[in-house]
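Same chain as my last thread, 486 residues:
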Amino acid sequence: MNLTGRKTLVAAAVAVVLIAGALLIRPARGGDDARPPGPGERARAAVGMGAPAAAVDLSALVADREKWLAGHRDDDASWAVLGSAYLEQARRTADAAWYPKAEQALKRSLEVRPVEKGNFDAMTGMGALANARRDYGTGKRWGELVRAQAPKRWTAYPVLVDAYAGLGDYKAAEKAMERLVDMRPGLAAFVRASQVYRDRGWREDATMSMEHAGGAAKAPAEKAYVLFRLGELAWERGDETEALRQYEAALRTDPAQADALGGRARVLAALGRGGEAVRDYRLALGRAPLPRLSLELGELLESLGRGDEARTVYEGLAARANRGGSDGGASGGVNEELVLGQFEADHGEPAAAVRRLTAEWARHKNLQVADALGWALHKAGDDTAALEYAKQATDKGLRLAEFSYHRAMIERGLGDEAGARRHLQETLRTNPHFSPVRGPLAKDALATIGQPPAGGPENMQPTTPWVAPELPKAKPKPGAKPSPSR
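reply #2:
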């Protein structure tokens, strides 16, 4: 992080602490104002900030707004709240049915109060919905529309950070994040700051920003989300002990957190506790049937020698891929092309993966798609094209063991053993347990390549010993006397 950015973030974090302290010492007032917020009010405050909300609170908010809107069909604000609540339900449960419901509610809000009249809550909700569906171009358009009409409205900036990052425009994402931190330091800002710094490869800054987010989190669902993200950062740098601690803290705070269950499963597998890991993956999928978790479970089962169970998981993913990764029915309009392309590259048809991921690259030129497309091209036998994408994924600062491994194997396919050795060593330094299937393969590949020959690569050694040429003796300068011999 540059010095200016660090000062801004620290100042913002201090401001949050001071504001929180002022709220704590403010004298309580009598009457209804002294009541703690109810479940629906808590959820309304969370979805208004784009923050996670507890399941019970969300259910209360949805029931309350649905009941109200049954008799007040032209309440645009309530339609926007309901749409955002439906979106949060979709995020928590991975139930595709919530996405069309969110879209319908937000569009109804815009029918009652259109864009030209400044329905910013619905417009921001539409941008957040597009990002959640991984349609980042649409998310960008909604965020920029809100910013153009109301540049001081801070809720546009989380949408813009997420959209720009999804599109691979990391400079724009960083600028939008810095503006957000200046305007509204808090949970949404610090979470985005952490993501921006992580994408730049600034691990310490990413962790510090997420810790600031933890200080700004209030509700258990918010705190659990931050703990999960801290676990992810620890996992990516290969600190299994810290990752497990954070995932388990997240689950104690919010036992319904499917992402934290999946994270714990990943760590348990790395620690050799495969049976417990399978249990956690199945529990996580029961709560949120995400293709990413299914792929991780299948590969874990494969590594444990449970091939029949792995094939069952892979068959489910193959059926999903054959239906199309972003069909409006099964996926609720969510773009699943990235994970399905990754599945096809390793467990299906690499040529199909290349087609799928090439189309995804045309939409979203981010680091994750670059890595996946490079790997698919390698699996399809085109290492020359693959290397260009692998370089894009690994040369921007983000350090992930999976990315380094992919680049190493592509370089090995091209006969570049020095490059392959360097990136395999980087893979195993970063996180030797990054995958139950490819982690052992990385170790085997490095052992096969071995160490470079003593004195450097063989093709750089001279065939005959080097002998210094005899240099001509220097002539004395005109008029100079010869030096006396010694």
